[in-house]
From TrEMBL:
Superkingdom as given in the UniProt entry: Eukaryota
Described function: This is the non-catalytic component of the active enzyme, which catalyzes the hydrolysis of ATP coupled with the exchange of Na(+) and K(+) ions across the plasma membrane.
Designated name of the protein: Sodium/potassium-transporting ATPase subunit beta
Membrane topology designation: Single-pass type II membrane protein
Keywords, ordered alphabetically: Cell membrane, Disulfide bond, Glycoprotein, Ion transport, Membrane, Potassium, Potassium transport, Signal-anchor, Sodium, Sodium transport, Sodium/potassium transport, Transmembrane, Transmembrane helix, Transport
Subcellular locations according to the entry: Cell membrane; Membrane
Keyword field contains Plastid: no
Family to which the UniProt record says this protein belongs: Belongs to the X(+)/potassium ATPases subunit beta family.
Length: 197
């Protein structure tokens, strides 16, 4: 599990000093540019997989000779106020910063959902069904799935305590997602956020 922006797992900025949050905004913009709609128009490379959680999309066996697989489109509009489309500052200017979360690419991995995992208050979730929809899995690897886009989840912290360093741990819940004490990014990440006003 990884997040953007990621800079030593710390996000510290002052809402009144644009230069303190501009680097985060730029990283967000650069990362999300690969999800621009105009880059997903080719119907030979992409297909619509719906904007509701679905089931795994069978694109044949990994070893079959079907060649290159189509990738699911993922529109930035799904990320709501964290898309950068209406708010080019991704909430940073208002002290309500967005984080974009993704599962790293693991060939042939099929995440299993665990329902009713506890949610932290005052965080808004955006994406498809507030999670990683199964129809985006499995991933067939760079050669067979060159245009693959990971589904994203955007978190917006809408009511952070200002001028205080906050330590936040994000975990992805799933029946077959495990945590490793030695690897901070296996199934989770820690981040420190401080918003000064």
């Amino acid at each position: 599990l990884t997040h953007t922006p990621h800079d030593k797992a710390e996000v510290f900025f002052n809402t009144k000093e644009m230069e303190t949050y501009l680097p985060y905004v730029k990283v967000m913009r650069d990362f999300l540019s690969q999800y621009d709609d105009e880059k997903q128009t080719d119907n030979m490379q992409f297909e619509d997989c719906g904007d509701q959680p679905g089931d795994y999309k069978n694109r044949g066996d990994l070893e079959s000779d079907m060649g290159v697989r189509k990738a699911c489109r993922f529109s930035k509009t799904l990320l709501g106020p964290c898309s950068g489309l209406e708010d080019p500052d991704y909430g940073f200017k208002q002290g309500k910063p967005c984080l974009i979360v993704k599962l790293n690419r693991i060939v042939n991995f099929r995440p299993k959902k665990e329902e009713d995992a506890g949610k932290i208050g005052e965080i808004k979730y955006y994406g498809i069904g507030e999670g990683f929809p199964l129809q985006y899995y499995p991933y067939y690897g760079k050669r067979l799935h060159p245009h693959y886009l990971q589904p994203l989840v955007a978190l917006q912290f809408t009511n952070l305590t200002m001028n205080t360093e906050l330590r936040i741990e994000c975990k992805v819940f799933g029946e077959n997602i495990y945590y490793n004490e030695k690897d901070r990014y296996q199934g989770r990440f820690d981040i420190k956020i401080q918003v000064n006003s």
